[in-house]
Batch of 4 targets.
Target 1
Amino acid sequence: MTDERQSSGAWRVVAPARLHLGFLDIDGTLGRRFGSIGLAVDEPATELVVRRAEAPSASGPEQERVLKLIRLYDADLGLGSGYAVDVTRAIPAHAGLGSGTQLALAVGAGLLKLSDRPDAIRRVGELAERGARSAIGMAAFETGGFVIDGGKGKSGRAPPVLARVAFPDDWRVLLILDHAHEGVSGDNETKAFAALPPFPEALAARLCHLALMRLLPGLAESDLVAFGDALTEIQAVVGGHFATAQGGSPWTSPAVGRLASRMKELGAAGIGQSSWGPTGFAFTGSEAAAARLYATLVEEAKAEGLEIRIVRGRNSGASLVPAQDSVHYKSSTKSNV
């Protein structure tokens, strides 16, 4: 997370969305459960301004949730409840983009900055019950980049980040958004995990091998084919396992699955669904390649009621700047339906 070291009566926080690209060992056959792969992207993002006020208040999207967060943080950390939070834009909820984590951390970071308590950001995440299965959202907020965490151990703490690799500047991600569907969350997500069939140890071993010997080297060497082939296989294995909780399909939105498959046919790499979806993704090696895919598929997307966005991987965390600064966050999103 970046910030400006100067006093201010109000702070603007912009937190990037994250893609959850798959698990490594869902059942924890070797003692650590889940193990997550993820990437911070520059759009969509949650943006808000936090300032002191006589009484807690919130405006914009997610008002009720923000008020609960203010009171939660005050009760544990003694920050005081006299804060106003204006949310100017928010990552779509229940879309597989980490909206809850980024909102919770953005509100917490602003309150901590005004209270001169920047050291407590991890506690903020714990209070908001972030990192219950994955550390990808917290890593996206703190550092950005492509991240793999080590899963949940016996301590119950948030998973440790094992690898953080910069995402190639030239590569692009095509996001496929379906605003008519929602992924599971909250209690429904807990029940869905509990109802999954056993995950074979041999498949967990295969996923770990793919991540260590294909996915990460492909990323480090900017080898899109190696990266994409490994990610597509990881997604196929994990998606197939989760299909029992998604009506028998690896895709929450069948339309997203169809469009992602078309992108693969036309040269995109690494297709899949982020978390429980419905957001899908595909990778290209350049802006020009992404733009060509967009132009080819835009009418198909419209016919399916879908939105396509071309975004970058984000190699830095959330931004935290005085609210009066006019230039605070650079987005590279070029096209949308």
Target 2
Amino acid sequence: MAQVPASEVSFGDIEAAAVRVRAAGLSTPQIVAPVLSETFGAHIRLKLENLQPTGSFKVRGALNKLASLTTEEVSRGVIAMSAGNHAQGVAYHARRMGMQATIVMPLDTPFTKIRDTEKLGATVVLEGETLAEARAASERLANERRLTMIHPYDDPLTIAGQGTIAMEFLAEFPDLDCLVVPVGGGGLIAGICVAAKHLKPNIEIIGVETELFPSMRNALRGESHRMGGRTVAEGIAVAQVGLITQAIAGEYVADIVLASENELERAMLTYVREQHLVVEGAGAAPLAAIIKESDRYLGRSVGLIVSGGNVDSRLLSSILLRGLTREGFLVRIRVEIEDRPGELAEIAELIGKSGANIVEVVHQRLFSDIPLRQADVDITLETRDPAHVAELLGSLASSGFTARLLNNTAGS
């Protein structure tokens, strides 16, 4: 069987972690995804870590690490640096085990993750514009207060806890020949590598990062892609991977794919529509990789790690609405009308007869360059599809109205 470089993490470590994970009730379902399989021509299976008590796989590694602490360490308390999911994992188990947890988060952490971490009993400290600055602050506080640092990914016990995911997945679906895994600091993919390669040495493991933070790809390939920016996948927006995780990934990961923001959004939208699952950007990254390179997976048995579901409701709302707009289900048209009574009512009647639904109407008189006795009317509509939009524009034109589509993404 395969062995990890320098024996930092062994399969025996993961087996021991699996006992703790099962005892804590942290095993999650793995399901067949028939609609996704048909759409992409592969046999797709999903590992639903978004159904964990804190909405993320991070509870596994946090449990395994916290269970190793001495009585003295427990009494002093623990500290962690996290953009959210690791924070909640540590806070969840710290409360269960009767210890105080302090969590340092970057200033731009989504409010949902801050609130949920505080609800679990942790003390949240917001400091630093980046994860690196937050990490420095956590190290300073750990020294000042003699707290035990719980690293989010570069710790053998944390890695072993995450590796239990692959044990469960392959126990249910031993036919998997490829696992696609989101990559931030590398703890998840490192643990999965150790477990999966032990159980099935020929399995292919592919990592996925956001294009804005290709830290593992840079490290493994010696590339120098620029890093930084706001991403929907903040859970994997990590500028520097771990030393242990890099060594393991370098040995066993076949490829690191970079997903664009558009591909990540599409993946999140697809999960909602086709699987009825709320998945955060990081958790949707493996599906984004399928969207990016679907031919790579044709006919294969592919396991996607749905690593988390902690997405801000406002962000999710924006993604859903942008998806409707891109696909022509939500459009905005501009109609030029004579500025006289009854004109707008006639347009509304034509739209109603076409089967479209009016969402919003903006009557423009001042901010336009049309003649004084005319007006622009911007109308937002729910439609069936782009063909329905074309049909509606044709109906308006045949009735003497000049109308055009304002958004140019319908059908793209």
Target 3
Amino acid sequence: MYAQLLHGCKPISEKPLVLSEVDQPRAATGEVLIKVRACGICRTDLHVVEGELDPNRYEFPLVPGHQVVGTVEAAPAGSGLETGQRVGVAWLNSTCGSCHFCRSNRENLCDTPEFTGWTRNGGFAEYITAPAEFVYALPTGLGDIEVAPLLCAGIIGYRCLRQCELEDWSGAKLGLYGFGAAGHIAIQIARHRGAEVYVCTRDHDRHQRLAGELGAKWVGGTFDAPPAKLDASIVFAPAGEIVPAALGALNKDGRLVLGGIHMSDIPAFPYQDIYWERVIRSVANNTRQDGREFLAEAVQAKVHTHTREFPLAEANEALIALKHDAIKGAGVIVI
């Protein structure tokens, strides 16, 4: 089979992914063999390729990609999965099931997790294996290209919305900072719940325009002050310098949720910015329950993903486009 291999972390401008012919993976006990049809690209893929994550977790050569859509080639007995069934594989590849966090329904904080496309080979390939218990049955009515971004951008955006801890979404004022793959899905869920959404993002021609098309109440630049105090905000952009500006836009008791796995340093800010019981919290990974609940709500909300397709051979070019904010919505590798 063909796969894009990463032999060592380098800037994406150096095109470190190498299209290679490799042996098809064999499914271990409890695993599913999946023929990949599409794989969404994500800023986390960029962090993986450029080495911005824990270097002790890398084992080269590595196949990136963690928003995998494919069909079951072989599945273990009793898994509930059938040959030919369309399924998805997301970022959280497996957990120990026995640590304090797993036993308290917080598997996203597992002490010894595995991650698709980072500690386990991912979906920039023609085939992938994954633990059956961590494979998602996908909803009908959404094509392979459209559903792929839901498997990370969608799920992590959903968990960010959950961490906003808004008791009543109807009429709530939500801010979104950065408007790429996750933002353009999160706004659709938030508006379906009745929230007003205020978007702060760069690139008028792509991101700001798309935010307006998707019903944002207001759209401005990354550091522009929204015209109203916000009940909660999510920062999807991996830029720590946004945090003080986002804090300043919150109402009393507001929540600021940081949605990235990696972010540049957050600059100092005065205590008064976080006073009045404002809260900053990060989001780490997701649980399988997050994924199942999100996919169900995405169908109810009639979420539509805006995508740009790339062939497997152009995975480097896809990630370069992502880094330079040249993709409107989400990029998807087509296998």
Target 4
Amino acid sequence: MNRRALQLALREMQAASTGRYSRIGMILSTVLLAVSGPFGTFESFNLGQRVGYWGVMVVGSYLVGQAASSFFLELLREQITQKWPRVLLGGLLASLPVTIVVLLVNGVAYQHMDLAESLSIWMYATIVTLAVVVVFVTFSELMAGAPPAGAAEPAPAATPPPPAAPQAAILDRVPLPQRGRLLALTVEDHYVDIVTDRGKALVLMRLADAIREAAPVPGLQIHRSHWVALDAVSRTERSAGKVIVELSNGLRLPVSRGYMAMARDAGLVG
């Protein structure tokens, strides 16, 4: 099993279960569904039973769906490089464990289940899971600081010059085996990859917040999804009309047009 994908799934489940807005959303969804009683639950259960039924259904399907979608999106990252095909396939695969949760809850609540009803549940679970995954990925990118398609890129952000032997606060988020000299910060879906000279670690946070925690390491945002430490850049080259910086660990990152002036002022681009 892909250990990285499993770690992401567990982190996503933990974040979904402990996050303030996730809890509020699950509570509001449970109350709304219990009061309205969709899918025949109004006739089948009293109010207290509906609260219990929908509470278990909402919490179970949401947490399992979040974990499963994160797992499959990471598992497919190397096989499918294009984002939206990967998101759609990941959502389809994630709908399977969500369907199992729904079937189990219904099996306990109704004490019966037939094939036609199971297929109907799978169809609804697939549609809902796909929609949630697409919305979640889009929303997470916006929260990470990536502008909508067609929007102008934000003003470049550079970390202020540091004192001698700087220590970045963001390194406290990195496990000890991978903790070292900070090289770069890159966005991966709704996570930030903290790259050091000893490895890297994924953290659920916005890129803008990660850049603030990178201070006082001298660095520069070169793309809406990438920040680099200036002393980590080993060389810069032009390839197919694009400017690429190569870091000391071999990582290659693009410099986008909106950040070219700052990169030139910092001496990264001639």
